[in-house]
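ok so dumb question maybe but i'm new to this and my supervisor (M.) told me to 'just get the structure for DUF4064 domain-containing protein' and walked off. so i did the thing. is this what she meant?? sequence i used:
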Amino acid sequence: MDYNPPPRSELPEGPADPSLSGHGAPANIEPEYVFQENKRDFKHSGPGIASFVIALVTLVGYAVSFVFVGMQASDILSNSNDVIADSSETIMFLGLTVLILAAVNVIGAVIGIIGLTLRRRRKVFAIIGTIINGAILLLFMLLIATILVNAGA
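this is what came out, is it supposed to look like this??
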């Protein structure tokens, strides 16, 4: 038994009874519905893009602050007049910068999670932003834990 439909050339041109077409001319057979393909052409999620941008900005911020502190430390060690007074400013700058950037990473991770929960949106940037922000926060927590363990010893 053949389950394939007949080719379009074998289909009848109109109804067998000309009175059914309304004006006596043969009517073309058109399907009652048109198949529309779901292309899944979703837009990128706004919070996901924001999370990704925040992750990139904080990575650049960490790099710039560590390079700046490294340059300051090399200047302090080369002059060695008053190491304690000069190094305290540099350490304070590094500490405040890292704390501010870690707070921004928390915001970026939360925004990334919000971007992951949106429906009918692409989640690529939300996934990447959440992973980068989470990894930076994990490294920050490991840094704090290492400092606390070494301070107690």
